[in-house]
Amino acid sequence: MKYNILAINPGSTSTKLALYENDKEIFCNTLEHSAEEIEKYDKIQDQFEMRKNLVISSLLEKGYDIKSLSAVVGRGGMVPKVKSGAYKVNETMVDRLKFNPVIEHASNLGALIAYEIANEVNISAYIYDSVRVDELKDVARISGMPEIPRTSTSHALNSRAMAMKVAKMNGKKYSDMNFVVAHLGGGISVSVHEKGRMVDILADDEGPFSPERAGRVPCKELIDLCYSGEFDKKTMNKKLRGNGGLKAYLNTVDVREVEEMIERNDEKAKLVLEAMAYQVAKGIGDLSTVVEGKVDAIVLTGGIAYSKRITALIKKRVEFIAPVEIMPGENEMESLAMGIQRVLKGEEEASEYSE
Ligand SMILES: Nc1ncnc2c1ncn2[C@@H]1O[C@H](COP(=O)(O)OP(=O)(O)O)[C@@H](O)[C@H]1O
Ligand SMILES: CCCC(=O)OP(=O)(O)O
């Protein structure tokens, strides 16, 4: 049986699309959006038509007829809370992502674009391993402040896919092993996977700082800054997500550039990069306690895992816990397509989304 799957992954500055015929990538295209284009829109949802039209034009340019598709999958966005795996996109999900997403995030457009294209040719649209996969145990939901329960927002798609790959490399099942996975991209998330469930995470404002995010910062000083009168809410949010981390210290989000600075003996760049690796290692140590130290493998993935300098800095601090596997890249397009292929083959079931 031949399955043609179109995967759509909207990011903050690009929309990626890829076509898979079974396991084979037929094409993958990154449609870049300039800062000037993005700035025209007040809300992420307002970018829907622009991004959808670009996806359709890109398919037309490739001479691809969408009537040949078996399914369309989008990166799952900021719905309140979902299980891991596949969900069929339905009107309830569309309403939530269009009008009331939990957080404004480019991934909210994945399901919307997938649904629109799938409806045109009467096939199903899906999301797979949304950023809001939430498999936290009750004990993990207590934050210390009753008004603010902990929830889960992470790079679940790549993190789960890479843990599954490492399980396979070891001749075992993902559901029989325990992993701590650090996804190291523009944003960083660390997650602990206990026998097939992602039971806790440290990401964004709770986790290590990253190229563009501040991570967990001292709370009291953060409150003071918010009330200093110097910054509005939008600017403060940008300090946490967008203009934090490497960007704030070194004015770049590109780790390769930071490495070049270090080659030129820039001591500040060396210290800040080391601090990022140090915080990731602390996050891995922290989450290892969730499975009482019974970690089968630590997985380092994402674009930054290409950096030998960073993986070495992390590895030296955590390899006493478990073997460290390095799986560079964000692997999201393949993970989306392979997830839906398993659904179409009947190896996994897609859940029905409701609130
Ligand atoms: N070969 C490399 N060496 C070091 N860092 C890299 C390399 N390739 C990509 N990166 C870094 O990875 C980060 C982006 O990771 P990626 O997983 O693609 O994230 P995102 O999808 O969040 O943009 C950037 O900081 C980039 O500089
Ligand atoms: C940590 C939640 C997912 C996320 O922020 O994804 P991006 O880093 O791709 O923006």
The strand line-up of the biggest sheet is 3-2-1-4-6-5-12
Query: What is the typical, i.e. mean, pLDDT?
Result: 96
Which percent bin holds the helix content? 25-40%
CATH architecture of the largest domain: 2-Layer Sandwich
Secondary-structure element series? EEEHHEEHHEHHEEEHHHHHEHEHE
Tally of separate domains: 2
Overall shape: it is globular
**CATH level 3 topology of the largest domain:** Nucleotidyltransferase, domain 5
In CATH, the homologous superfamily of the largest domain goes by the name ATPase, nucleotide binding domain
Rg, Å, rounded: 20 Å
Poorly predicted parts: none
Tally of DSSP helical segments: 13
Protein name: Probable butyrate kinase
Catalytic activity: butanoate + ATP = butanoyl phosphate + ADP
Organism: Acetoanaerobium noterae
Subcellular location: Cytoplasm
